[in-house]
Amino acid sequence: MRQPLDRRRIRRLIMVQGVLLLLVTLVALVFGRTAALSAFLGGGTALGANALFAFWMFAPYRAQQPGALVTRFYAAEAGKLILVGLSFAAIFTGVRPLSAAALFVSFFLVQVVSPVVAHGLAKETPRSS
After folding, report:
1. Between 4-29 and 33-57, two packed helices, what is the crossing angle to 10 degrees?
2. Residue 62 sits in which domain range?
3. I need a labelling partner for 89 at 20 to 30 A (CA). Which of 46, 79, 117, 125 fits?
4. Are the beta carbons of 52 and 80 closer than 8 angstroms?
5. What is the DSSP string of 43-54?
6. What count of other Cβ atoms lies within 10 Å of the Cβ of residue 111?
7. What whole-number distance in Å separates Cα of residue 23 and Cα of residue 16?
8. Helix, strand, or coil here: 57?
9. What gap in Å lies between CA 127 and CA 116, rounded to an integer?
10. What distance in Å separates the CA atoms of residue 128 and residue 125, rounded to the nearest whole number?
């Protein structure tokens, strides 16, 4: 099984993504309700896909079956990409009005910037024995 430290790191990352999602949504509110909703949907798509990936990857597995872990990784990544694609398709077909800029900027920030922030927080956090 994976170390508890790995689970703490992934929980921290998901938490940072959630906080960043809320912050981006609040900042987008300055530009109006459409921008805020679009930002929430974009960041929420990234957060949901990453949470799904983490759930699949951090489920218990047998260390004697490393091939199964690799298969699970590819399946989790494929599931994540499918979820993102379906989410964007649903958003673009069902949400009117929509701010594509707010949607994609929020998705990018939650997907790319939050791991950098979480990694920085992990460096600053003192290790406990």
Report:
1. 170
2. 4-124
3. 117
4. yes
5. HHHHHHHHHHHH
6. 19
7. 10
8. helix
9. 19
10. 9
Looking at the chain, how many residues does it have? 129
In a domain, 58, yes or no: yes
- pTM over 0.85? The answer is no
Q: Is 129 inside any structural domain? A: no
Q: Is 50 part of any domain?
A: yes
pLDDT tens-digit map of 31-61: 999 999 999 999 999 999 999 998 888 776 6
How many independent structural domains does the chain possess? Answer: 1
Which ranges in the chain belong to alpha helices (H)?
4-29, 33-57, 66-94, 100-108, 114-124
The token pair that represents 70 in the structure block: 């690799």
Tell me whether residue 65 is in a domain: yes
Half-sphere exposure of 68 (CA within 13 A, CB side): 10
Structure tokens at 30: 């300055």
Name the amino acid, one letter, at 86: L
Backbone phi and psi for residue 24, each to the nearest 5 degrees, phi listed first = -65, -40
